[in-house]
Automatic annotation (TrEMBL):
This is Nicotinamide-nucleotide adenylyltransferase. CDD domains: NMNAT_Eukarya (cd09286). Belongs to the eukaryotic NMN adenylyltransferase family. It comes from Drosophila lebanonensis. The gene is LOC115621914. It holds the Pfam family CTP_transf_like. SUPFAM superfamilies: Nucleotidylyl transferase (SSF52374). It is an enzyme of class 2 (transferase).
Length: 255
């Protein structure tokens, strides 16, 4: 029976998650989203999750409180030291200019599937990137890369001028969304009110986070700027990095 179960798992469609954002700084909730999503898909035996990717946004995004990309990359690397399956991609931050989310998804999905179907150990451009999940060549079937996000990103689709309709349609139609929602939120209503999201609602997975965590990057920056403790709100290694570099106009505190 166990052999049959394992064989069945081997036949499940393969997916990976990609989270875009500022990560200024990265918080434990950024990583918890990956764990919540993987549990959902694997416990329901819907897909085989092959990896998770964090892609920090380009410096030219220009959001308030955005630390330089070199610092954000360093902090994400520190936060990921305890993870065996979530990896950091620096492709977006090293691009000559800001990149649309749909392009970030397309690049990483195409790279993974080209790698799966290529005969050699190296791509033509050189060594394999560190974000590439392990053991992708165990099978030859394609991998779908889904955008992992919170309900706030889903709701941002409705903000005028923020997202192009063709970008939203491409993301949902060709990749899919995995949305981590809070208890009491109503993402189903938001999807109903959007013609594009309703059209592709079968590609949207809503997962309720039953252990809410309201710690955001903006909250951490505010506390640091006020000289208040953020211990236990961030990974200790990330906090030490912020102290050492003086990011976010951090004022001294005793803790």
């Amino acid at each position: 029976m166990s052999a049959f179960i394992e064989e069945t798992k081997c036949l499940l469609p393969r997916i990976a998650f990609l989270a875009c954002g500022c990560f200024s700084p990265p918080t434990p909730m950024h990583l918890r989203m990956f764990e919540i999503a993987r549990d959902h898909f694997e416990m329901n035996e819907m897909h085989k999750v092959v990896g998770g990717i964090i892609s920090p946004t380009h410096d030219s995004y220009g959001k308030k409180g955005l630390a330089p990309s070199a610092d954000r990359l360093a902090m994400v690397k520190l936060a990921l030291q305890s993870s065996t399956w979530i990896r950091l991609s620096d492709w977006e931050v090293n691009h000559p200019q800001w990149v649309r989310t749909r392009s970030v998804l397309q690049y990483h999905q195409n790279y993974m599937n080209n790698y799966v179907n290529s005969p050699g150990d190296k791509e033509q451009s050189g060594p394999l990137p560190g974000w590439l999940p392990y053991n992708l060549r165990e099978r030859k079937d394609p991998i779908q890369l889904r955008l992992l996000c919170g309900a706030d990103l889903l709701e941002s689709f409705a903000k005028p001028g923020l997202w192009a309709d063709e970008d939203i349609e491409d993301i949902v139609a060709n990749h899919g969304l995995v949305v981590i929602t809070r208890f009491g939120s109503n993402p189903e209503r938001f999807i109903f009110e959007s013609d594009i999201l309703t059209k592709y609602q079968r590609n949207i997975t809503l997962i309720t986070n039953w252990v809410p965590n309201e710690v955001s990057s903006s909250l951490v920056r505010r506390l640091l700027n006020r000289g208040q403790s953020v211990k236990y709100l961030l990974d200790d290694l990330v906090l030490e990095y912020i102290k050492r570099t003086g990011l976010y106009n951090m004022k001294s505190y005793v803790h």
